[in-house]
């Protein structure tokens, strides 16, 4: 469109003779992006070989999509990324609640205005982010919300009940010429599913018994937990049939993807004058805790273990390190193994256990996930034979005492008395950087303990390895 945007249908006609439907528009933009070799879903991680090719195909085919997956698999993010395939803005009849196409309006009022005004029909431009309408399905969503209702104000102004112009449109008609997204589709009441199906399939629906016919142009994308979607009775069959393609989402298959998601989503805790550094092995441990939870028999895998578990743990552990840093007057925030405990409340709140357990047992389950995670990551970084010198020094009577609140500099003494530990630290971080080195020392000691090479005793808030 030119800099001076058309204000009327007549002016619009000088540029275009018709407007594509939403499917054609998305397909056109997708093809352009493919030809320009653009990154199609820049914010979506870990789906390059699975979900994204299926999505591309669905957009090319103009298919209505159902995304099946457990919680925290980025389904909402996928939905929002669909906006990228819409034009930046499209012309519509000014003031129309259903974004009418000025060439072919569908609502009674716009049809009338077009007949009366012709090329003088005023138009305006809708930006693309207003063309995605999202609704979280809950059991109390009603037909009025979704489809529409008779507007008492319009009736009071003299419209009659059987007059289409008396209708206040719901969310679905308002998504006309755009995308309508329903989250957790199976939670819609059956009656509402029937109404929704009629709108999708027949383009007609009833409001208070009065039939309305609107040929809506909408791409529908819905999400559901696979268990709920396939269990009989939760979704009416005809509605299921209206989804052309079913795409199964999943959790990251690799730890590096889980870490990328953490880094993308985490809320920054930056404080002026303080540098924050989360060592790679700490990120790996947090991601591994989530991976362990996803294969734990104690945890309900039907509802799943969201990536938000990793994201919130990352924030909690950084917060714990920040608190220490402020209390000790240090200038670098580096989380350590002793900070992992601070993630337990964030983790526990996001896991659904398979059975009722007392709080104490729940805490034990989370703690065991963390221990297993530390051991897994430790084994990925070290072979025990490379740490023989470290283990021997403990066999010869050395003790190491650490605590969450011990200043980083205090760890540096360890380099003098424990032979070999500095070399091991160097494989993880810069050993001259005290906050990073203390995190690495804690990791090595705890890893050796979990490998049954060191004993560990907890005395009040201190941990003694020997
Ligand atoms: Zn209209």
Largest sheet data: 5 strands, parallel
Residue share in helix: 40-55%
The parts where pLDDT drops under 50 for at least 5 residues are none
Compounds present? Answer: zinc ion
Query: Which CATH C-level class of the largest domain is it?
Result: Alpha Beta
**Chain-averaged pLDDT:** 91
Give the name of the CATH superfamily of the largest domain: P-loop containing nucleotide triphosphate hydrolases
Structure summary, number of beta strands: 16
- The value of Rg in angstroms is 29 Å
CATH architecture title of the largest domain: 3-Layer(aba) Sandwich
Query: What's the tally of helices?
Result: 20
How far apart lie the N and C ends? 74 Å
Q: How many individual domains?
A: 2
CATH topology of the largest domain: Rossmann fold
The strand order across the widest sheet is 4-7-10-1-11
Overall morphology: elongated
Provide the β-strand percentage band.
Answer: 5-15%
Structure description:
- This protein has 466 residues and is α/β, with parallel strands linked by helices.
- The protein has 2 domains: 9-248, P-loop containing nucleotide triphosphate hydrolases (Rossmann fold); 255-465, no CATH class.
- The protein is built from 20 helices and 16 strands.
- It has helices at residues 9-13, 22-35, 51-61, 75-81, 108-117, 143-146, 152-156, 171-174, 190-202, 226-230, 237-241, 255-265, 280-294, 307-328, 344-348, 359-381, 388-395, 408-417, 421-426, 434-450, and strands at residues 65-68, 89-93, 123-127, 132-136, 148-150, 167-169, 178-183, 204-207, 210-213, 218-224, 245-248, 275-276, 332-333, 400-403, 456-459, 462-465.
- The chain has a 5-stranded parallel β-sheet.
- β8 and β9 form a beta hairpin.
- α13 packs across α16, α16 (359-381) crosses α20 (434-450) and α18 packs across α20 (434-450).
- The longest helix is centred in the C-terminal third of the chain and has 23 residues, at 359-381.
- It is elongated and about 95 Å long.
- The N and C termini lie far apart (74 Å).
- The model has no long low-confidence stretch (mean pLDDT 91).
- The structure holds zinc ion.
- Residues 93, 96, 98, 100, 105, 107, 109-110 line the site of zinc ion (ZN).
